[in-house]
């Protein structure tokens, strides 16, 4: 469910007509709905209400990579969520948005010494470490600072998530985590290192999961591993079950499992683990909470279907180019007529194609369109290819709206280039 609906024939974000934002800010522009974000947080929390998770309850750490806008993170922090970060930049963004350090989990395969020092100085909740060499580096850093680093090993369970290959992370050939069969030895090695408080297990098998079967299989393996680790003398008190729950993009496809079904599965599998559970939702919280608002430049005749050329491009929304991802495309002011078209942007790449042979609302030059379900992995992946400005972002609440990231002036982009003294 989202809060983007037609009112008097015009698409609104909550109570704000999208043409108002387009006229004031220009296009393309990302628009986020506070009410949708808050509702998704409430639904996810309710889904986990009955899981066993110690006296403190589960820690829900939003995956900052999905949408790192500070206003979005501040909204989530106000709702009680923590943050799952994978870089120093994401850590600093989360802290700047008001996320308490003791609700931050640091994941990722390539943490540097500098990033480790920052996270230790901030006092984060936990490092999810992904290799024995990383454990050794963190041990050295923590020991030099006179601190102890709370850690969990991310385990690669060799479970295929059934999602797109580029967002699958739990197979044996993926770069993430310690191989399941190597886990006992890795924990033994880490336990012997100074400066580490080895206390947890983590797993994350992929993103945009549409079937609970692979997650259940991975979690069952983690439950068995926890028992083995305890038998080996390790005090395991946390289990991070990652994120990845999918959201509906293509209305023609089955709806992914709802958070309630996910929560019921987690409750059944983790009963008796006697740990504090951690979760890293991203897409399921913000995906449907955002749209990319764009304007039609022209409609170009094609050999077959026409090309609808919009002012948004692959640099603004990369998912279709990267993953052949589907986004529903709607007219902001539909007139009841339909068309079949290829929707493309102005970038000089054939890959700058959002959809081919798409049945959609009929549009004409100057019309506004929205790319739906663009709140996750949209603006965060944008770039300046073809010297295009980074897309601005707007946050809506009720009948109020505010620009939460300005459009970058092209002059600023050019000024960032420095000429060497010989030119």
UniProtKB/TrEMBL annotation:
<feature type="binding site">
    <location>
        <position position="377"/>
    </location>
    <ligand>
        <name>substrate</name>
    </ligand>
</feature>
<comment type="similarity">
    <text>Belongs to the Orn/Lys/Arg decarboxylase class-II family. LysA subfamily.</text>
</comment>
<comment type="subunit">
    <text>Homodimer.</text>
</comment>
<dbReference type="GO" id="GO:0030170">
    <property type="term" value="F:pyridoxal phosphate binding"/>
</dbReference>
<feature type="binding site">
    <location>
        <position position="323"/>
    </location>
    <ligand>
        <name>substrate</name>
    </ligand>
</feature>
<dbReference type="InterPro" id="IPR009006">
    <property type="entry name" value="Ala_racemase/Decarboxylase_C"/>
</dbReference>
<feature type="modified residue" description="N6-(pyridoxal phosphate)lysine">
    <location>
        <position position="65"/>
    </location>
</feature>
<dbReference type="InterPro" id="IPR022643">
    <property type="entry name" value="De-COase2_C"/>
</dbReference>
<dbReference type="Pfam" id="PF02784">
    <property type="entry name" value="Orn_Arg_deC_N"/>
</dbReference>
<feature type="binding site">
    <location>
        <position position="244"/>
    </location>
    <ligand>
        <name>pyridoxal 5'-phosphate</name>
    </ligand>
</feature>
<dbReference type="InterPro" id="IPR029066">
    <property type="entry name" value="PLP-binding_barrel"/>
</dbReference>
<dbReference type="InterPro" id="IPR022653">
    <property type="entry name" value="De-COase2_pyr-phos_BS"/>
</dbReference>
<keyword id="KW-0456">Lyase</keyword>
<dbReference type="InterPro" id="IPR000183">
    <property type="entry name" value="Orn/DAP/Arg_de-COase"/>
</dbReference>
<keyword id="KW-0663">Pyridoxal phosphate</keyword>
<dbReference type="InterPro" id="IPR002986">
    <property type="entry name" value="DAP_deCOOHase_LysA"/>
</dbReference>
<feature type="domain" description="Orn/DAP/Arg decarboxylase 2 C-terminal">
    <location>
        <begin position="30"/>
        <end position="375"/>
    </location>
</feature>
<dbReference type="Pfam" id="PF00278">
    <property type="entry name" value="Orn_DAP_Arg_deC"/>
</dbReference>
<comment type="function">
    <text>Specifically catalyzes the decarboxylation of meso-diaminopimelate (meso-DAP) to L-lysine.</text>
</comment>
<keyword id="KW-0028">Amino-acid biosynthesis</keyword>
<keyword id="KW-0210">Decarboxylase</keyword>
<comment type="pathway">
    <text>Amino-acid biosynthesis; L-lysine biosynthesis via DAP pathway; L-lysine from DL-2,6-diaminopimelate: step 1/1.</text>
</comment>
<keyword id="KW-0457">Lysine biosynthesis</keyword>
<feature type="domain" description="Orn/DAP/Arg decarboxylase 2 N-terminal">
    <location>
        <begin position="36"/>
        <end position="286"/>
    </location>
</feature>
<feature type="binding site">
    <location>
        <position position="283"/>
    </location>
    <ligand>
        <name>substrate</name>
    </ligand>
</feature>
<protein>
    <recommendedName>
        <fullName>Diaminopimelate decarboxylase</fullName>
        <ecNumber>4.1.1.20</ecNumber>
    </recommendedName>
</protein>
<dbReference type="GO" id="GO:0008836">
    <property type="term" value="F:diaminopimelate decarboxylase activity"/>
</dbReference>
<dbReference type="GO" id="GO:0009089">
    <property type="term" value="P:lysine biosynthetic process via diaminopimelate"/>
</dbReference>
<feature type="binding site">
    <location>
        <begin position="280"/>
        <end position="283"/>
    </location>
    <ligand>
        <name>pyridoxal 5'-phosphate</name>
    </ligand>
</feature>
<dbReference type="InterPro" id="IPR022644">
    <property type="entry name" value="De-COase2_N"/>
</dbReference>
<feature type="binding site">
    <location>
        <position position="377"/>
    </location>
    <ligand>
        <name>pyridoxal 5'-phosphate</name>
    </ligand>
</feature>
<feature type="active site" description="Proton donor">
    <location>
        <position position="348"/>
    </location>
</feature>
<feature type="binding site">
    <location>
        <position position="319"/>
    </location>
    <ligand>
        <name>substrate</name>
    </ligand>
</feature>
<feature type="binding site">
    <location>
        <position position="349"/>
    </location>
    <ligand>
        <name>substrate</name>
    </ligand>
</feature>
